[in-house]
Amino acid sequence: MKLFADLMKSNSQGSTHAVGPVIKQRRGVEIKSAREIEIMRKASRIVATVLREINSMVEPGQTTGDLDAFAERRIREMGAVPSFKGYHGFPASICASINNEVVHGIPNSKRVIKEGDLLKVDTGAYYDGYHGDSCITICVGDVSQLGQELSRVAQESLMAGLGQVKAKNTLLDIAGAIEDHVKANGFSVVEDYTGHGVGRNLHEEPSVFNFRTDELPNVTLRSGMTLAVEPILNAGNKGCRTLRDRWTVVTRDGSLSAQWEHTILVTSEGCEILTDREF
């Protein structure tokens, strides 16, 4: 996801990961060719596979470090490179954010997953020059009713947004559908972070916002665009802060947070969910 405060700034140009793909110069909103789309299907399928497997294996007593090691091994076994590892210095292959952690939680061999945790797992795979990116929220064991509802509404808001994706619609159509569903259920949309274009770079134009705004370009969608749509919801207010590790973001009021994300392809009639886990 993109940090809202930095959306109008230039991305790093000409730099490289310590272990991973080159961060290429921004080129504006790109329309992918049939060849590029097919590669992105493969990259996204790897991401979907890893998240499906993690969702099935998570249980209390594991550590977030265990999940990270598993994800990196599986991504590499399938011929890809973890998109996140080394990206602007991030030290792991997944983001693992628990309960009031909003995004960018750093996996740790000492961070034990507990019964009742609301666990967000975000990961990406770089395959043959292109990225796939997706996030799921996992209810670990007996999660509170509030946690279950928050995750459900976050996933529903993602699908509501994707329901507005088709050529000639706009980013505001997506944002409005997400925001309306979230507010109707009494939760808050995190505005500090947005979705993004995805392809040769993990983060490309445009910024795919989840709330109505006139501060970002309201891009008209075109067939062949590939986007990462990722609503992030808080059970309390939308405020967030970053911890001293410079990565982990938490809710200011200590409330729970949930996130769901898919990489999608815009088509003339709707969208293809490239990171669909139902295969």
Architecture overview:
It is a single chain. With 279 residues, the chain is of the alpha+beta class. The strands form four sheets. Strands 1, 8, 9, 10, 15 and 16 form a six-stranded antiparallel β-sheet that branches. Strands 2, 3, 5 and 6 form a four-stranded antiparallel β-sheet that branches. The protein has a single domain (2-7, 27-273), classed as Alpha-Beta Complex (Creatine Amidinohydrolase), CATH 3.90.230. The protein has four helices and 16 strands. The protein has helices spanning 34-57, 64-77, 145-162, 171-184; strands at residues 2-3, 81-82, 94-98, 101-103, 118-127, 130-139, 188-189, 193-197, 204-208, 226-229, 232-234, 240-242, 249-251, 257-259, 262-266, 271-273.
Supply the key terms.
four-stranded antiparallel sheet; alpha+beta; 279 residues; Creatine Amidinohydrolase; 25% helix; six-stranded antiparallel sheet
Q: Major beta sheet, specifics?
A: 6 strands, antiparallel
The fraction of residues assigned to DSSP E strands is 15-25%
Give the overall shape, derived from the CA principal axes: globular
According to CATH, the homologous superfamily is Creatinase/methionine aminopeptidase superfamily
Coarse structural class: alpha+beta
Note the total helix count. 4
Radius of gyration (Å): 17 Å
Reported CATH architecture: Alpha-Beta Complex
Strand/helix succession: EHHEEEEEHHEEEEEEEEEE
Runs with pLDDT <50, length 5+? 7-19
- End-to-end Cα distance: 25 Å
User: Whole-number average pLDDT?
Assistant: 93
Number of domains: 1
Quote the CATH topology.
Creatine Amidinohydrolase
CATH class: Alpha Beta
Helix content: 25-40%
Record field, number of beta strands = 16
